[in-house]
Amino acid sequence: MKPHEFPFMVAYADTDAGGIVYHGRYVEIAERARMHWLRGARPMGDDLGFVVRRLAVDYMRPLKLGDEFMVKSQVTKLGAASMDIEQKFIMEGQVYAVVTLTAAYLGGDMRPKRIPDELLKFL
Length: 123
Description:
Layout: E1 4-9, H1 23-37, E2 49-59, E3 68-78, E4 82-91, E5 94-106, H2 117-122
Antiparallel strand pairs: 1-3, 2-5, 3-4, 4-5
């Protein structure tokens, strides 16, 4: 599957007092990138759709105020009811952070459910 690319520029609101991107903002930016990527993948019927089950962030280098970078999102593993996603924060060929997560597909009863074929085609 081809990675999705989401451009982002660090604003003052993304930084701490030292002008470095606040660690929690990486999770918010990754979520925004995933939403942009998956905006055409709607839950089926009464299903809730994908929810984050596990998330980890590895910080390699600090991003700073005014930095323009790309979040590259890609499915690394696709299961019957879940998928693993890797999101790399990249600027000028260097990886600054990596978010890895598992998203489970939930039905309306809040239980894991097989990912519908329509969504598998989208992914």
